[in-house]
Structure formats: structure tokens, C-alpha cells
Amino acid sequence: MTSLLRKVLSPVLTWMLEPLICRVDDRLRLQILQLDARLARLDAALFPRLLPVVIKNELCNLEYLPRDILASCRRVHFVGYYANDAADQFSNATASSPLDSSAVHLAVSALGPNDAVAFLDEYHFRRFMETHWCSPSTTAGTLLIATRFELQSEDDCRHVLHSLGFMEIARTCRSHGGKPTGVTAVSHAEATTCAPRYLDRSPQDVPDDVGWLVVRRYPQHA
Fold first, then answer.
1. pLDDT digit string (tens) for 8-21?
2. Is residue 221 within 8 Å of residue 186, measured between CB atoms?
3. How far apart are alpha carbons 10 and 96 in whole angstroms?
4. pLDDT averaged over the chain?
5. Are residues 144 and 80 in contact, defined by beta-carbon separation less than 8 angstroms?
6. ∠ CA 150-138-152 to the nearest 5 degrees?
7. How does pLDDT run across 42-92, given as a tens digit for each residue?
8. Most exposed among 56, 172, 211, 217, judged by the fewest C-beta atoms under 10 Å?
9. Which is more confidently placed, 7 or 54?
């Protein structure tokens, strides 16, 4: 009896519901396309204003690369407009332009726990997260992000990174040539909120130095 009812009702329900489902699908597809168009217009409006700042920051950051940390990683993938210039300085490095977000995503997805992703400006990391909505903590063991915290505060930035699954974040300052001038702050993720819990002291600015966030999947400081 159940089988007979299924045979009778199935085509009837399909006939009744298929037009409704198609209309809903068409409406949702249109809304998604409209949202994509709005986001593209917003990005186009913001990008020309940010581009000179990002390029200026990258050119400066090339002179302040944390070479000791980069050399200790099995592989490093640089992301930035001048990523090739950075990768040419290391035998274990590759590079992607942020203009090709698919290539960046594929390269990051291929990394392992002993590998690192180095974003030559904080803007590129934010764009990566906005574009792909995935956590690089599932692939790379370390992120290095050159940042002046022009887009968000340091606490907010650390909170986001801890929420992505990275247990430890250290901020290291580098002088010209990449020489370390000390680690200014190390934070671990709070167990319930993922808010940064500083182990030593609050972050401090070091004049004329470039700060890099060294973001690790597993903690190295007790």
C-alpha cells in the first residue's frame, strides 16, 4: 500500500512543487548576483584608494622580512603584488599575486603544517578571508602578516586569527634588513571566547621598525 501511494503521489508532488522550487531558485540566484555586483562595486570604490598605501607598505616590507623565521619553514608562499621579489630571495619560496585569488587559494591549500604563508600586507590577508571564507589553519602551520594595523586594531586582528584556529600569535619587530629587535607581545587564545590572552605584556610600537604577526597553529611559548 505504501509503495502504491508513493508511486501515485510522487509524480503529483513533483508536478506541483517543481515550478515553485524553480521560482525560488531563480529569485535566490538573482539576489546572489545582485549582492555580488554590489560587493564588486564597493571593492572597486575602495581599492583605488587603498592601492597606493598597499604598494608603499609592500615595498617597505620587502626590506624588513623576518628572514630567520622564513628560512626555518619547509616551504613559504608569499602573497602580494611584489611576492615574486620576496620569493626570489629564498630557495624554499613560491609566490602568488592577489589579483588571481584562485591561484592564491590553490597554493595555500597545498601547504602543510611545516609550511608558512607570508602576506606582504594585512590587506591581502583580509581579502583572502573575504574571498574564500576558509581558515588557512587547516593547511599551513604558520602565517606571517606584515601589518601596521591600519585596517583594524591589533586586539581585533588577534581575536580574528585566534578564532580561525591559530593558538599562538607573536608580534615581532624588524629593523632594516630584517634584523629582529625583539618580540613585543605573545598571545594565546582564551578557551571560550578566543580573545587574545597576553602572556607577557601589551603590544608596544617600536619607532621605525616593521611589525610582523607570527601566527602559529600550535604554541611555542608556555
1. 566 666 666 666 66
2. yes
3. 51
4. 80
5. no
6. 10
7. 666 566 577 888 899 999 999 889 998 999 899 999 999 999 999 999 999
8. 56
9. 54
Sort 24 into a burial class: Cβ within 10 Å, 0-12 / 13-18 / 19+.
Answer: exposed
DSSP summary character for residue 137: G
Lowest mean per-residue pLDDT among 4-18, 164-178, 194-208: 4-18
Whole-model pTM: value is 0.73
| Beta-strand pair 180-189/168-174 | antiparallel
* Residue 72 exposure: Cα atoms within 13 Å on the Cβ side: 9
